[in-house]
């Protein structure tokens, strides 16, 4: 059964969407997948503190009262702040959704497909999101992340060109090494985060987020035209001919080693290689979005299905297909930012706690968009900071208010949920500087009630990146 898109407006004119598939109702608001009601064809709205169950059918939606549940309101606020071209893709109809080359494979294996950034993607399979999260930590997971955009910058000036757009010391990377970076705007805000790799001095490979693809490519193209007009030698290629798989967890390396002649034992976190895997010419990066050891594999699309099957077979069933729901839980446990939640165009890398990604040379020289704002924050400190929390009560969600113990506002939650590994609520958010230190007691307001919380260090679950001993 394909997902159905349901759209309606509240009496205040706010647009709200629900996705109906099988017996699960999911609410599509950017990237938070924790709002799932299993086994029900109804959901809850909040009307002046009174909970009202609202029937959902494929053809219509009825609602009593005037108020929308907090979830719908937060989705509306976030989309109102977002770039219009990005927001449009979250309101795609079923017919407009793109499909990866593994779409039929997902469906055949029980994947529950939902709209995500203009694509039909699996949110989960037969396992629950909690079980899938735990299996990734204990064994391994295979994710289809082909909705993300891989591209190459080439030419003798590709490094100085990219350094105008990102905070990383690209020139300082060794060939075959990569790092997380941030594309910034003139005000120092984050346009997107990206993993970039120096393949060699005249070739940079990078991957950008699916939800930011259009604006990222437009941003790069605009600046490339100006750069080339001044004589710069740089060109680009968007790798639409390739698919992207993420193999994560403790069994990632031993499983992949069965499929390549290359020795992976000397291939460390952040590294990049071009090699044959299962007979296919692949770009391999030792990175991921889970906090576990793992790889992202760029594979020619005609070889993607065979590679996915081979990975699952070589793991003897221990590595499992895993959807975006567990991927979100895993990245939250690892304390990793989700663009659109934890980073946006008005948030700087310093505020987001990504100062480590600003190269030492870049701090001295600047030269990237928004450098004046960012370097000033490095010197004097930001007014707000991203922090982690433990909390009591219901799991905190995006836009939940954070208060001090006297009820004064400190900031708001940007990501939150129940941690399958820790068996407790975890969250990230932004608070005023001075309230950001670990151990600071706070209140988190959920549906009008304040619950106890405490600022804690991140990651919540220790990372297991494969580094030299």
Automatic annotation (TrEMBL):
Domain Aminomethyltransferase C-terminal per the UniProt entry, residue ranges: 385-461
Enzyme class: transferase
GO biological process terms held by the UniProt record: glycine catabolic process
Keyword field: Aminotransferase, Membrane, Mitochondrion, Transferase, Transit peptide, Transmembrane, Transmembrane helix
Swiss-Prot/TrEMBL catalytic activity: N(6)-[(R)-S(8)-aminomethyldihydrolipoyl]-L-lysyl-[protein] + (6S)-5,6,7,8-tetrahydrofolate = N(6)-[(R)-dihydrolipoyl]-L-lysyl-[protein] + (6R)-5,10-methylene-5,6,7,8-tetrahydrofolate + NH4(+)
Record text on subunit structure and interactions: The glycine cleavage system is composed of four proteins: P, T, L and H.
Family, per entry: Belongs to the GcvT family.
Protein name: Aminomethyltransferase
